[in-house]
Amino acid sequence: MPATVLDGTAVSRSLLDATAARAAAFASVAGRPPTLATVLVGDDPASRTYVKMKRSRCAKVGIGSRAVELPASSTTGQLVAEVSALSADPAVDGILLQHPVPAHVDERAAFEAIAPGKDVDGVTVHSFAAMAFGEPGFRSCTPGGILRLLDAYDIPLAGRRAVVVGRSPILGKPVGMLLPARDATVTYCHSRTADLAGAVREADVVVAAVGKPELVRGEWIKPGAVVVDAGYNAGNVGDVEYPAAAERAGHITPVPGGVGPMTIALLLEQTVRAAEAGR
To answer: What is the pLDDT at residue 1?
Structure first.
């Protein structure tokens, strides 16, 4: 039987509806909407599209947005100063620094200029530690969105073997921190993994988050496994060979329409939560 499709577009819709209601309630008391500041460095077309889409979603749920655009020639110090100013601004509830920044900029330094209470994208060391230790805080949006999507389909994780393909600090590593909290056993795989195919074949849950089109082959998927494709590559292609994987998996996310909508929905929910906490 073909896999059940994990429809992130449908699941995110209910999350966005709830977020819109909370945003309206906040605005009625605070006299202003919850506000997300987006910071874009340079003029990368994909990054510009992502920021525009996020601002559009903000408007649809009653969240205000403030755009900060810096030239590609900006220094680390200039970017840190802009982010620090937003962190100190009481009219800003959440901050999103669009990834990636130009190569000459220290992205980690810029992330760490985000005040923990405004880190609604879950990119700071503070947020990562909170995820790792199960403490209150903001989750990295894509990993957090993945967990919410699995929950919506009542997919059990306890006792299951999960393989995370990728170890980026804003996706692979944090999702590997969240899964053990659900009592899954986690293996990280990456560019130096000796037998990626063998590791994937043993997995009950596969999270592909490496940014290489169709790296994970369908024939590797264990029959009945849950496949979460967090990759997005040119031509609407994910990190998993979708047609072949869907014939073997029990559940699978499409690209697009799977993880992406959940990422944005969680970003907006966390922005409203930040506003509520700071009121």
So the answer is: 72
